[in-house]
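Researcher: First entry.
Model:
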Amino acid sequence: MIDIYFKNGETKRYEWMRDVDVPLQDMLFVNVVKDGAEEFNELAHIFKIDPSFLAQKEDIEISSRYQEDERQLSINLKFPYLRSEDARKEVEGELSRKSSQQFQRIHRQTIHIVLTHGLVLLIMTPDTQRVLTYYLGQKAMKLKSLHTHEEIFTLLIQMINDYYADVIQIIIDRVIVYSEKITEIKRVSENDLNFITHLNFSNMHMKESVIEIQKILLLLKTSSFLDHAQKNKLQLEYEDLLIVAEHIQFSFDRIDDLEENVSNKINLEQNRIMNIFTVITVCIAPPTLIAGIYGMNFQYMPELATRYGYYFSLASMVVVILIFLGYFKHKKWI
């Protein structure tokens, strides 16, 4: 699927690349949703771009994330997104604060932004389309009011930064909600531990994504494809990301506090279990001793001939157990 924004302010959608039948010079911004890497060559043919750099999405070096030559400026971004069906509602803040368990771990897929001397291309996968389409919808009116490809490129970077800030706020909100929940529950389940792990992984993904785009913004300051006004806007975006990075660190601190709280609850639960075992062991030991003594096969044991010896031994066991239970109750062990 391809959405094309034209220089005259109009937009048009094509289901297949082969259906694109308008001159390249009339286009300003192209939004492409692709299913596979094999479509890069077709994109390159239609929009006159170099596809070789776009295929380097699995490399981790910054050189595989940003490349600029005389023809085009290319960016590969590891874009974080929510696989949950409630991803859009997460972003819009429509989920109830009580539904913290619906938050899913963040995954990342590569999106591509290509800037030429007259055109901007945004290339994304169906998975990332859900989030990006929502944000593009919010910016639709502003997109139509822009007249240069440099302004659109800057708007895309701003849009991605806004999305990062929103997702990080979602993570912080979930940590806060879950911290309140943990203080109320008595026993921590495996689902609770898995949820905290998901939060931590998601926060790590967001930190990696923010560091990545910060490096790219620093490189864009020397780009020949952007004018001074757009570079100033991107500098402001870089400064905003510094604040976002502080929020990520705050989220890590909250998650650490949450993990410590959970660990303390687990230790308390283990201590309660050990107390129960201790009480049972101490209560059983005296009756076991009495039964062991009178179970010995000696020929002469005076108590064995006593008429009420059996009842006396049972009463002794019960009295000893009650004495220990009373003692433990007084010490508030039980």
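Researcher: Second entry.
Model:
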Amino acid sequence: MSMLTPPGLGAPRRKPNWRFLLPVGAGILAVIGLVAWLVVGGDSAPADKASPSPSTTNTTISQTTSRTPSPTTPSLPQLSSPLPAMAIDVRVFNASDRSGLALKTADELSACKFHVLEFGNDPLNSDGKTAATIRYGKRGLTSALSLSSYIPGSALQEDKQRSNSSIDLVLGQAFPGLTPPTNAQCR
């Protein structure tokens, strides 16, 4: 036989203490946000100054800037073994008047397993006199050197404002096309 307490005769039901739950909930959200920021790396928002947002669609960026540093190839270290193509994030930009060059090259890089973030016209409006320029930040030197093995004679240009490892491939008027190394696995 069960012993049920008739309504109104048992202990009164307590209302939740919202003054306690609100700070606890805010603290939990703050901890989750901090953990997510640390997992992502903490540099995902303003890290890339050359492109406002990564995209896998054909985009033309309307960002204008007057700085276009000249490409240089300082004395760079030689790679003992290049990064695998799938570990390299690259944006492909057309600085020539050859229509569709960025799309064609992005497709070729994708076939070689590169992670193409974006393609379109060069947002920094380079003059296109260099056949190919690879822009990189301090964390992207190895990626830039690895990609340069696919484009003999390409110029490397450091972007001191970029803090992530992504790189930009800027195609000029005399871009000859990709020349994958013999050990590259392109479709």
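Model: Note on the second entry: The longest strand covers residues 115-121.
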